[in-house]
Write a structure and sequence with these properties.
The protein is an alpha+beta fold and about 475 residues long. A 5-stranded mixed sheet has the order 4-13-12-11-10, with no helix packed on it. The longest helix has about 60 residues. This is Pre-mRNA-processing factor 19. Ubiquitin-protein ligase which is mainly involved pre-mRNA splicing and DNA repair. Required for pre-mRNA splicing as component of the spliceosome. Belongs to the WD repeat PRP19 family.
Length: about 475
């Protein structure tokens, strides 16, 4: 009989009642002292449970010293016993690890197959949804949740407003003179920080300034929304929405905000007048149409949605092939541009929802802004220092403006001369000269901004910092 651990004939054999195996007594006692169980089947075992086997005993000599061959052999025997115990434990551990790894690989393969099937079914459902026309209800109650979808086109009333606005604006846009009292490059170059408020909204990242230039709409974490009066220097209204505010715009006198829950809410005079939940994921950006009563939102669900604020209804939803981060209407209102996480700028015909153009960026498209002359589109990728200028007439990038610092927001002024950029290192103003077709930088200020926009007549810049406070930059 051989020891189940060392594989040698035991000098002092014992039997385990748990497994019936024979062991060398010193080896099994050492194993029990360390592990407390039978090495063969893993059951609980103590030295008292071992059964002594009667065998002819060999009288061993007195312990030798290391100065002789017998003493060396004794040391080698002890080392071999320890090695035998360790090797046996390693074999058991290896077998158990192999079994666990095999099970984990099987479960991973099954999970991958399920995810692939669900992703395919989701994409097929979205594609089918984008081709289905659902009649939009015109009698939605104020404040109700509307989710009418019509990817095939806009309702007649909305379409008529879009076409009328496009016709009136496209005729006069290129001949439009610079308004009297508008800021010049010389005046902008002298802009300095005038005042900085205390934090107004915790975790604020969304900013929009009313056309009057006085009211700043600020959205932040935990759904906090504040409307700050620049003239009164105080918050005049506090609003609330579920989730973190991701975007904010003004639609006339109505404040429109989007949240991380996918909700889009409309407020007027401090009261919520409409709420929409068309997005399946977070709503990431908002834009206002030239009509002033149509708003667009984009979301992580790969779609953009148009809302008619005259009827408080979502009138169309168009799905794309990637999650969307930014959105902007063309000044004439006939095109809508959406920036995706795949680095693509997707331009659609507002009236039909069909794709009109596609531009490629180096990364997720953080922000978009059309110039007021309708010729150029500015865009910036996430964490990039470069603003790309696209010529819509030739569908190509005509200028790459490297600001030298990260850009998080961009905003073109009404005249199309001045492009404002904002980021953690400060704000800049890039000027385009139509006569020389060249770019210059009249202003670079170290005012940090997670979002920045123009005030009335470009006479000042309003910047939102990471603490939720506003900084006004203008002429002293």
């Amino acid at each position: 009989m051989l020891c189940a651990i060392s594989g040698e004939a035991p000098q002092e054999p014992v039997v385990s009642p748990k497994s019936g195996s024979v062991f060398e007594k010193r080896l099994i006692e050492a194993y029990i002292a360390e592990n407390g169980k039978d090495p063969v089947n893993g059951e609980e075992l103590s030295t008292e449970d071992l059964i002594q086997v009667q065998s002819q005993r060999v009288v061993r000599p007195r312990p030798p010293t290391l100065t002789s061959i017998p003493s060396l052999l004794s040391v080698f025997q002890e080392e071999w016993d320890a090695l035998a115990l360790e090797t046996y434990t390693l074999r058991q551990t290896l077998a158990q690890t192999r079994q666990e790894l095999s099970t984990a690989l099987y479960q991973h393969d099954a999970a991958v197959r399920v995810i692939a099937r669900l992703t395919q079914e989701r994409d097929e459902a979205r594609d089918a949804l984008s081709k289905v026309s659902v009649g939009a209800s015109r009698g939605a109650a104020a404040g109700g949740e509307a989710m009418q979808v019509d990817a095939a086109g806009l309702p007649e009333a909305v379409l008529a407003r879009v076409e009328s606005t496009q016709a009136s604006l496209s005729k006069t846009r290129r001949k439009r003179a610079v308004p009297e009292g508008w800021a010049s490059a010389d005046s902008i170059s002298a802009y300095k920080p005038l005042e900085t408020t205390a934090p107004l909204v915790p975790g604020a990242k969304a900013l929009a300034v009313h056309a009057s230039g006085d009211l700043a709409l600020i959205g932040g974490a935990e759904g906090a929304i504040g409307i700050y009066s620049l003239s009164q220097k105080q918050v005049v209204q506090n609003l609330q929405i579920d989730g973190t505010v991701t975007a904010a715009v003004w639609a006339g006198d109505k404040a429109v905000v989007a949240s991380s829950t996918g909700a889009v809410a409309v407020y007027e005079n401090g009261t919520r007048t409409a709420a929409f939940t068309s997005h399946a994921g977070a709503a990431t950006a908002l834009a206002t149409h030239a009509t002033g009563d149509i708003v667009a939102s984009v979301g992580a669900d790969k779609s953009y949605v148009l809302y008619d604020l005259t009827t408080n209804a979502a009138v169309t939803q168009v799905f794309t092939d990637a999650s969307l981060l930014s959105v902007q209407f063309h000044p004439d209102g006939h095109l809508i541009a959406a920036g995706g996480v795949d680095g693509q700028i997707k331009i659609f015909d507002v009236k039909t929802g069909t794709a009109a153009a596609n531009y490629a960026m180096s990364g997720p498209v953080k922000a978009l802004f059309f110039s007021e002359n309708g010729t150029f589109l500015a865009s910036v990728a996430d964490r990039s220092t470069v603003v790309s200028i696209w010529d819509l007439r030739h569908s190509q990038e005509v200028k790459a403006l490297d600001t030298g610092s990260q850009v998080d927001s961009i905003s073109w002024d009404y005249t199309g001369q001045f492009l404002l950029t904002g980021g953690p290192s400060g704000v800049t103003v890039q000027q385009y000269s139509k006569s020389s077709k060249s770019w210059s930088e009249p202003l670079r200020s170290a005012v940090p901004a997670v979002a920045a926009t123009w005030g009335a007549a470009a006479q000042r810049i309003v910047a939102l910092n990471g603490d939720g406070g506003l900084t006004v930059v203008g002429a002293a």
